Structures are given as structure tokens and as C-alpha cells.
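Render Endoribonuclease YbeY in 3D.
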Amino acid sequence: MNSIVIDRQAAINEPLLPTLEQLTHWVGCVFSHHPDDDRLELTIRFVDEAESQALNRDYRGNDKSTNVLSFPFENPPGVCLPLLGDLIICHAVVAREAQEQQKPLEHHYAHMVVHGTLHLMGYDHIEEQEAEEMEQLERELLATLNIPDPYHE
């Protein structure tokens, strides 16, 4: 497999953010199950709740902060670039969810990165069948990282 290129951006000063190595490992896990996809470059940006809320409002029509937003890159006609897209992750929301769900922060971050990367690759969970397929794939991918089922109550 070609090298994964991640542009890691931290728009917040937070010592508990995942490292580039962790991000590369988690994204690589997704790519290993999609070896034919040659879009190996993405941006992962960590933001505060205000930026998350503004992006969620402006692009998704939901006026609240959220854990992860995905923005797939669409190649212009006649141009082929290896860009997958951008993930925007709100640390405050992810940390709060991890605490509420009594999960290690690292595990929840891994789940958000896997989940968001799958969105960039075209997976969705709007329809029930799509949701079941995506959640099952997330379970399988996270299991390879020794992370328990994130959907288990």
C-alpha cells in the first residue's frame, strides 16, 4: 500500500489530542480493508465547540457542535488527485461522550476517526440498512485495533 498522508491540524491547545502516529494507524486500519482506494491523503482538524457548531450549522443545517464532521473531496472533472477529504473533530464533544459512555478517550477518538474516514469513503447511516452495514464494519475495524464494540450498551 502507498503511504498515507495526514495533515494534522490543531486549532485548539489541548494536550490529549491524538498524535499523528495514532491517526495514521487508525486511518490505515480503514485503508487496509479498502486496498483498491488510492485516495490516501486527508486532513484531520481538531477544533473547539464554536468552530464545530459553525461548520455543522453552515454545512449540515444543525446549529450545535458535534463529534465529527466529514467533508469528502470531489475531484474536478479531468483532474485526479489522491485527496480523500477533511475530518473536523471537536475535542470537547469527543471527551464528553467518552466520559458519559465510560470509554477510554483514545478508544472513542479511534472510533470517531474510523467513522469519519468511512464517511469520506462513501459510507453513510441515513437508511437503516446502511447504518447496520457501516456499524458492523466499524465494529470489525475497531476489533482489529483491540477496541471493544462502540455500540454495545
